[in-house]
Amino acid sequence: MRIVVLAGGVGGARMADGFARVMPPQDLTVIVNTGDDFEWHGLVVCPDLDTVMYTLAGIVNPETGWGIRGDTWGALEMLGRYGGETWFRVGDRDLATHVYRTFLLRQGRRLSEVTACLCRALRVEVAIWPMSDEPVRTIVDTEEGPLPFQDYFVRRGCQPRVRGFRWEGLEGAQLAPEARAALEGADLVVIAPSNPYVSIGPILALPGVRELLQDRTVVAVSPILGGQALKGPAAKMMAELGESPSALVVARSYYAFLDGFVLDHADAALAPAVAAMGIRPLVTDTVILDPEARARLAREILAWVAAGLPAAGEG
Ligand code: FO1
Prior knowledge:
CATH superfamily: CofD-like domains
Radius of gyration: 19 Å
Number of strands: 14
Bound molecules: ligand FO1
Largest sheet: 7 strands, parallel
Order of helices and strands: EHEEEHHHHEEEHEHEHHEEEHHEHEH
CATH class: Alpha Beta
Strand order of the largest sheet: 5-2-1-9-10-13-14
Number of helices: 13
Strand content: 15-25%
Number of domains: 1
Structural class: alpha/beta
Mean pLDDT: 97
Distance between the termini: 20 Å
Shape: globular
């Protein structure tokens, strides 16, 4: 079975890691959000691509879920001494990734090619593709005005109240050719437990993606359990956009193309409402902090899909 995982940052990386642990690497592709990308002191930083890449390479910092384990901060400290901004914390080894990526991009290579080159060097066998080779930048419209994503997320700690989201560059952007080929050939698309607005939203906003998903088997794992996000601002954003935070809001936002929806035990009571939307629910443990839990959830999803998405007690 050829599987494509649509992923954002830490939640996406953990779900991709689960599948990477239980299936042949050549059958798995991860398509990653690039709306969080930005220029940092002249370097092109792709936080979600790097989070997925470092996780699958086994070198991610397990405490933060992003950055490199055991990294040091000498360059950042020096940058601070020069008066440079240091609110976005780039470690010394992580810095090399941004330097080399920027170097390759300036030679005219596409982001997909550059990502493949970095992954090869880190011995990542699973294909990781950016959603687009053209820059697409998430702008968070807040009560204090528009903020570029990392300004909102890191510098302002997700404090300003959200009014909506926009994507700069979307008009000129296409789904990258490698990502498109993977989606076209997929037997199953898994939407990782990533933020539906700012991690999955940009991927779905690219022309043709929703149409491609309508023709495939698509299951999503809820990033919201018990009305809260395990990590990140998804529940806060929901509330500020006038929704009562719930896994149901996520299922509804993917309704047009979703076949199955994976809910945590904490939300078992929502399963009938999911089924009433014509979407098959699977209730299980969706907390995937450790590698064993990730592999178990991936295995469970594969078995569920192979059995034709039976509801509990069926099949
Ligand atoms: N997240 C933070 O909360 N603070 C940081 O200083 C920070 C630095 C950083 C550096 C490299 C990288 O790849 C990711 C980094 N992140 C940081 C995470 C990142 O901002 C978010 O996880 C994603 O953009 C949201 O998915």
